[in-house]
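Lecture 7 notes. Example A: sequence first, then its structure tokens.
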Amino acid sequence: MRIEKSSQSGKTTVYLIGHFQSDHVEELKKQLRENGPRFVLDLKEVTLVDVDVVRFLETCRAGGVKLVHCSQYIREWMNRERQAGTP
């Protein structure tokens, strides 16, 4: 997993690249704390996630973090987790 970041006009975009697993969540939480409310997660190059990551991404989305370039399988999994009541 690799995390890259760019800021423009007060908005920070964090690019996630590769396999994103539960042991990477803490680093991403740190990025969220450091970069404030105008935060975008770009998931274009995420190739694999686990259930803890899906739940974390759903929590981020529900909290106002914008998710872009999210693959269909991750979105569908997030929707299933939300419907099951497991944010």
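Example B, a different protein, same format:
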Amino acid sequence: MGILLYFLYDTSPDQQRTRRLIDAAVDFVVDARRIVTSPLLRPIRRRVLNVLRDAGLLATAPATAGV
């Protein structure tokens, strides 16, 4: 939603600033995914998934072992 709002108010030609923001956000998400899937972060990942599950944001326990 934030990027959409940024896009709506972007006055740069062809929304160039929004396009750069999206490119940077995609790169960030790809890098963050590499870090989060590290085996060293498995205990933290489990805790986050448990919190999300308790909040009703995840339907069931993950089907894969080693999450």
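Note on Example B: The helical segments are 2-9, 16-36, 42-54. The CA atoms of residues 47 and 53 lie 10 Å apart.
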